[in-house]
Amino acid sequence: MHKNIIMFDMDGTLLDLAYDDFIWNEQLPIRYAELHACSLERSKEILYDFYQAHSHTLEWYSSRFWTAKVGVDMLAMQLEYKDQVTLRPQAIELLEYLKNNGYHIWLTTNADCAGLDFKLAHTGLAKYFEVIVSSESIGYAKERVEFWQTLQQQHAFNPEDCYFIDDTEKVLNGAKAFGIGHLYSIAQPSSAKPTRQTCNYPMLHQLTDLIPVLEQFEDTQKYA
Is the pTM of this model over 0.85? Predict the structure, then answer.
């Protein structure tokens, strides 16, 4: 039987988003305040405005862009705290199940290439994926339909047969507009924040919740 492609986001899906929240919402304001001799409160206000101005753009995900924008070496700071990068619960269990059952596993992330590389090295996740793609190398953020069009040109796939799991609704909206057939979100991307109560896409409370979904789909295909 033909096995579907299962595409994963990285941060907030396979990895705990608490790390990124810590870097961008806690450590960067402190470093920015020190560097620019302003109060922590003022630092947070300035950074909030920066974040709002660039949210969901390709620049938003670029360490190089933010280093130039704020004057703090963002890649160096991320590496300084890399030991806080952790997998979300059941990530390995799900990936092992998919690999052992012949699914095609892809990683499609908005993390820039440098961030992707150190997180993969730290977690050992790379071995599970047939295709690993950063939006930086594609030239469009995943929120844009052009990301998916370019990905399809580089790695041929049938969108209707794909499963895609991502914690960001705007990214899922872009995938939906392109025609990805099976879309799922994450109920608790960050262990430091409460579980989400609402989402416009079905939410996985545990990553392994995807397994019965796939098994049910396979059963329906047998008798189709």
Answer: yes
Q: Residue 212: beta bridge partners? A: none
Alpha carbon distances (Å) from 1 to 96, 126, 213, 218, 224 = 19, 26, 17, 9, 12
Whether 1 has a pLDDT exceeding 90, the answer reads no
Question: With contact defined as beta carbons under 8 Å apart, do 147 and 138 qualify?
Answer: yes
Considering the chain, tell me which residue range(s) the CATH 3.40.50.1000 domain(s) occupy.
5-17+87-222
Q: Which fold has domain 5-17+87-222?
A: Rossmann fold (3.40.50)
Q: Supply 160's token pair.
A: 């209707």
What's the chain's Rg over C-alpha atoms?
A: 18
Q: Given a cut of 90, is residue 217 above it in pLDDT?
A: no
Q: Which of 14, 67, 1 is nearest to 222 (CA)?
A: 1
DSSP conformation letters of 96-119 = HHHHHTT-EEEEEE-S-HHHHHHH
What is the per-residue pLDDT across 43-80, written as a single tens digit (0 to 9) for each? Answer: 999 999 999 999 889 999 999 999 999 999 999 999 99
